[in-house]
């Protein structure tokens, strides 16, 4: 047996577990979801093929449209603010003493259960005895709003939780990106008399653009899949003001037991996320700079 063939066999042996895991837990469920989306099935009886009726029904379903609008509004709030805050905090912590300890504190919420985080924030945002409204009253003599029972505030309130929860993950990414920027750029800028603000705008942000692009893609995907916070804190209310697209998928599958419709909604969400991701990848050619 020649050396190249032996190396090929060992290579296949090493990647085989990962490929099997990808096949069993990703590819097969994905194909199954596509097939199920064209079926009528209640989870117990026989499946019946109905073509694209489930997709047509979802496109005309008012709950699907509402859930998509709520998810889009949530994404618009979470992604830009979360990325901006993560960049600013990463820059602030980049060269301070005890950076590792700060990074640990900021990252701790990321590894905390979403259910636990939601329950804590459910208490913090309680309109009657929540700690945020209590301090607003004591310190500023302001009557706090109904964070989770006001239709206009419920999505921003959940978004505020999510920004805090995911801030540490993005911050760590940007800290790693900052470590990869050569100090020679800043030294040259200082010799030319550039201020700290100009260095940040013309050096830091452009050279962080690959990290920003990755963080934006991942944040957008995660934000369109928000479910736990809405389920635990509001149950999709008030009056479905926090009814998200994944909550809609859950409702169709495990409350109404219309698994075909649920799979169709999930496939449509997949197509939406894929389309937005491909669009961002296309647009990124204009603002993402690799180098330095």
Automatic annotation (TrEMBL):
Top-level lineage group: Bacteria
Transmembrane residue ranges: 12-36, 72-93, 105-124, 153-178, 199-221, 263-283
UniProt topology in membrane: Multi-pass membrane protein
Main location: membrane
Keyword Nucleotide-binding in annotation: no
Domain ABC transmembrane type-1: 68-280
Keywords associated with the record: Cell membrane, Membrane, Transmembrane, Transmembrane helix, Transport
Subcellular location: Cell membrane
Signal sequence annotation: none
InterPro entries according to UniProt: ABC_transporter_permease, MetI-like, MetI-like_sf
Annotated PANTHER family: ABC TRANSPORTER PERMEASE PROTEIN, INNER MEMBRANE ABC TRANSPORTER PERMEASE PROTEIN YCJO
Protein family (similarity comment): Belongs to the binding-protein-dependent transport system permease family.
UniProt protein name: Sugar ABC transporter permease
Organism (species): Paenibacillus ehimensis
